[in-house]
Structure formats: C-alpha cells, structure tokens
Amino acid sequence: MKLKKEEIEHIAKLSRLKLSDEEIDKYRHELSSILNYVNALSQVDTKGVDPTAQVSGLKDVFREDRVISWEESEVASALSQGELEKGNVKVKRVL
Amino acid sequence: MSINLNELTIKLAREKLDKGEISSLELTEACLKEIESSNKELNACLSVYPDLAKEEARLADKRIKTGEKGELLGIPYLCKDILMTKGLKTTAASKILKDYIAPYDATAVKRLKEAGAVLLGKTNLDEFAHGASTENSAFGVTKNPHDLSRVAGGSSGGSAAAVAANMCIFALGTDTGGSIRQPASFCGVIGLKPSYGQVSRFGLMSMTSSTDVVGPITRTVADAEIVLRVISGEDEKDATSASKAHIREIKEVISQASPLLAERLKQEKNKGLSLKGLKIGLPKEYFAKDLKKEVKDLVINRANKLKEMGAELVDISLPYTKYGIPVYYIITPSEISSNLARFDGIGWGTNQEGANNLQDFYQVNRGLGFGSETKRRIMLGTYALSAGYYDAYYKKAQTVRTLIIDDFNKAFKQVDFILTPTSPHPAFKIGEQSNDPLAMYLEDIFVTGASLAGLPAISLPAGRVETSNKKMMPIGVQLIGPRFFDFELIELGKVLGDN
C-alpha cells in the first residue's frame, strides 16, 4: 500500500505540522513502508482477546478534591517565557 | 589521592564520605573536571551547572557533618534532559524547547534532591526519547566512549556514555522501549528499567504514557538498587504509580503460581537470593539462528554461570515475540501524537515571524521546531488513530499486546526469571542505521517485550565482541522479572556481577 500525497498533506494538517515538498515526499515513502511492516498484525488471530488499556492493574485512583495552589514563583516561571499582556498570554489572531 | 574520585561507585563513595576521607565537594569537582575534559568530544551532556552543583555539594557536606546518614547524600549525578529540573533548561534535545526553563522538578529529581544527591547537569538523548542511537538529538549525537566512531545507543545515550566515561557517579535515564537498557548495553554499564508504576512519571515529558519509566544507569548493580530505593514509590501526582499495598497484592498473585519464588520472598534480604532450584528461562525466539554467534556465546556464558551456582536453565517460548516491534511502533507513535499535541509554541520555543494566524503559527513552529523522527512518529500516530483506522491499527495493536503480555504471564508460571541478549549486536557506527527508520526500529527487538508488559528488566555487561574496525565493544545480557519483582531481579543481577 502506498499513501497518496493528499493523505500525507491531510495528516500533516491534522498534526499541525508544516512540511516542505521534499518532506511530504520523504514521509510518504517512509510512512508507507512502516505501515506495510506493521500491517503484519492483521494476520494475528485476536478473536476473543481484549485490548490492553493499561498494565498498571490499578482501578479508580482517586484523590481528595482539595485545592492546592502552585507556588507563586512556579506560576510566574511558567508564564515568564511568553509574551504577556495584562496577565494574559498573547497569541496570533485566530481568524 | 591515587584513585580518581569520579570513578567511584555510589557504595565506595558513600564509605569514604561517611568516614570523612573525602568531601562531596571534592567528589563533585572531580566529576566536573572529567566533564570539562571529555564532554566536547563525547557530547554526553547538554548542560552543566558547576556553580549550582558545588553549592549542592557544600550543603550535602554540611548535612554529612551533622551525622546525617543517607545513601545518596553528596553523590553527584547527571539527569536525562527529558525530566523537569526546576529553574534549569529542559530541552528534550529538541529545537522546539531549546530555551525552555522547567518551572518545577520531576518527582524522581525531587526525591534525589531531598536525599542530597548533587545534580551536575542534563544529558543528551534522542529528541523526545524517539530513537535508539541519540542520533536524533537536535544538538548532535553522543559518541560511545569505547569507540568514538560508534553511537552510545539511545534514547538515553548521553546518560549511558556519561556513566561509562566517569563523568558522574550515576545517571538517570528513561526507558519506553529499551532506552535505558540498550545504551547501557552499548556502553558497558548497568541499566535498570523498573516495573511500570514503580517510579513516578510526574515531571517526565510523556512519550508513550503506557510504557514510559524512569530508571538508573550505574556502574554496579548494587548502585542501581540504591537509586531505585530513593526514586521509587507511590506519588499522588502520578495516578499510574503503585502503592506498596498494590505492589504486595500483585506479587502475591504472581507468587501463587510460583511456589519456589514465594519461598524466596520469605527469605531475609541480607541473605541474598539463593539460586538453588531457581528457574531461568531462555526464550528460543530471542536466540534464533540468525543471532550473531559471538553475542550468543557471551550471553549463554552468563546463563551457564547461573547454572553453575545452582539455577536450572529452562527452554521456553514466547511465541508472539515477533509482533513486539509492530505492536510497539503503532502504540508508541499513537501515544506520542497525543502527548506532543501540547507543544504549540506559545510562550516558549522557536518564535516564527511571518505566521499570520494561529493555525499558521502552530504549523510553522511545530514543523520547524520538531526533528524528522519526531514528525515521522507524530504523523504515523495521527494516521493510526484517525477515523477509519483506529480499529485496524491502535486497537489491534493493543489487542496483540495482550497476547504478548500473556506470553510472559505463562512463562513466569514455568520459570522465575528470563534471560536474553539485550541487543542483537554491539554499538553500530554513527550514520550506519540512520537512513532507514525501520532498521532503527528493529534495534528494539529484545527490549520491547518487557516494556509492553510493564516488567522490570536490567541489562548487565556480558563481555565484549570484536567489531569490523577491530574494536572490542560491550555486549549486554538482559534479565527480565515478573511484574514488581524489581528488587528480586536486582538480587539476581548482583549474582551475575557488574562486568
């Protein structure tokens, strides 16, 4: 199976990745080859087998619903690397 | 001093520190000196903090002087740059995070800090831990200290090389599909992958949430045990971390299937593991005809050592082994595509001028900020999870994963531990595998299984083989244990020895 150029462009858009034409072509070949390889799984008989959701074996991990504020210095640090305006992080226009 | 302090093990350093023969400051300075002299060539460290480290060392020395006892008090270490270290750059070896300062400490780092370990700096890795050679780092490859033309392995290549080159006394790595064990094997050091849930993942930048673990890379097995004791344990901030009660419960269920192992559980810790009657499984799928004879001989030699000491070698089969790589390389990219969606470039990262709106901004920042392997995996995962493909890929892979886990469950009813090679070959040359992503994925062939099943696994040096350029390169033997039998696995590792 070989992925089409349009499929790669669509996946790139979904992943929010801007790719050059060379990259689109490169990934088209590479992804096709990898998908062909992993397709070996389609041969495996998995009738009656449940998928693994997690291996931890834990169930219903809860904690008390109490509010613990982050240290102010940590909050300041987390917000310090962006462009702030009136306490809000500035981004490019959406539309 | 006739010995080089930076070559000490945790145990030896501890003795000397507690006796007052050396100070943590001297130990730290010795490591910093080694980093300064060899890091330019090896590129094991991405960032080093001499002043901070010396300050931490002085604090540790004060604590030691008050008579405080602690196994890691004053011991210098390096940390893989995918774990958050408060106030310090945490880049995941990616351009997109090249100036990112972590606002908090990962739990594993916090526990080491509280124990008095001294952080020297952060080590190199494959970008976002995607890789098996550290060639995917945005900041250059890490060279193997045993042969500079070869890779140090990956993704924890920097940590493994640093320990092998005596830049630190121990290092922290992470293992998602072999990333502690394989570089440890390539660099001739010990690499321990704890059971999933044994160590908190809080502060570890997520890659494959269902297999990621944090673990130690050390020069001795006893050292790995010390680090594990400090960093492991339930964490309120990681819902997948296991409590002591849960661990006990799981081990009891497993022991019911294996009475001999249950016997050993009752033995006193100090007596060590008795090998008499212990069953070691050798899975035939890991010793196939095409395994290099020199590698097979060294690994079987280790198995025979256990046999000489009273263990019984048992041939077993893990029939779904061959599906480990396809399963892993559907699940991993899928979880990656979700986990890396948060990297929007807002507030940090490469700021791209010219992007006119938010969509463009995301696409350009991510397109330019992420390296090619990362983008490859994000796209694979996006495809595998997308409408119409989810059942055929992700769900199918998780179902075959159940069969792989069952293989191990069945095996652990017949044997107590499993022994295999860590890697089919020694470290390859820089550039040798990097043109074919699939060839690179196959590097994980022996290490993926334990990751998918969440089992504890350790790689130990098994000897050296001669390579094409006449260098003798390290080979690792892997021991795998049942879920949460980490400390028993370590006892077995101690029997095999450190080199």
What does this structure look like?
The complex is a heterodimer of chains A (about 100) and B (about 500). With about 100 residues, chain A is mainly α. Chain A has three helices and two strands; from the N terminus they run αααββ. In chain A, strands 1-2 form a two-stranded antiparallel sheet. The two termini of chain A are about 35 Å apart. Chain B has about 500 residues and is of the alpha/beta class. Chain B contains 17 helices and 13 strands. Chain B has helices at about 10-20, 25-40, 50-65, 105-115, 155-165, 180-185, 220-230, 245-255, 260-265, 295-310, 325-340, 360-370, 370-385, 390-415, 435-440, 450-455, 485-495, and strands spanning about 45-50, 75-80, 120-125, 145, 145-150, 170-175, 190-195, 215-220, 280-285, 310-315, 415-420, 455-465, 470-480. Chain B has an eleven-stranded mixed β-sheet with strand order 1-3-2-6-8-7-12-13-11-9-10, with helices on both faces. A two-stranded antiparallel ribbon of chain B has the order 4-5. In chain B, strand 9, helix 10 (about 295-310) and strand 10 form a beta-alpha-beta unit. In chain B, helix 5 (about 155-165) packs parallel to helix 6 (about 180-185), helix 7 runs antiparallel to helix 17 (about 485-495) and helix 8 (about 245-255) crosses helix 9 (about 260-265). The longest helix of chain B is centred in the C-terminal third of the chain and has 24 residues, at about 390-415. The mean pLDDT of chain B is about 95. Chains A and B meet through helix 1, helix 2 and helix 3 of A and helix 11, helix 12, helix 13, helix 14 and helix 15 of B.
